Amino acid sequence: MYISISSFEIANDMAFEVKEAYRNRPHLVDNAPGFVKLQVLSPHENPNEIWLMTFWTDEESFQVWYKSHMFHDVHNSIPEGLKLVPGSVKIRGFEHVAE
């Protein structure tokens, strides 16, 4: 299994709107080949920080999704006016080792 973890920090007062956008997301990724699940997290100590964990059967499936037009389409649901802390966007890939 391959896991992609993305994180970013919201620079303006829009954490509530961003979290609502994820709660009401269009679910475009759900039918992508190799997709398993998505989890959206926000740490208690910094509610302006968002972590996205996507689980995939393999890294190739994630890469196909990441380069697809649908990946870019999901970003159309980003709340208008959102500003991120410069340099806060990170995307990392992980091998799932054990549960």
Automatic annotation (TrEMBL):
> What keywords is this UniProt entry annotated with?
Monooxygenase, Oxidoreductase
Tell me which domain of life the UniProt entry assigns to the organism this sequence originates from.
Answer: Bacteria
Residues making up the signal peptide according to the UniProt record: none
Database matches in Gene3D superfamilies:
3.30.70.100
Checking SUPFAM superfamilies in the record gives: Dimeric alpha+beta barrel
The question of whether Oxidoreductase is a record keyword is answered with yes
The UniProt record lists the keyword Membrane: no
Q: Name one Pfam family in it.
A: ABM
Q: Which GO terms describe its molecular function?
A: monooxygenase activity
Q: Which InterPro entries match?
A: ABM_dom, Dimeric_a/b-barrel, Heme-degrading_MO
Domain annotation ABM: ranges: 2-91
Cite the PANTHER family for this sequence. Answer: SIGNAL TRANSDUCTION PROTEIN TRAP (PTHR34474)
Q: What is this protein called?
A: Antibiotic biosynthesis monooxygenase
- From what organism does this protein derive? Pontibacter qinzhouensis
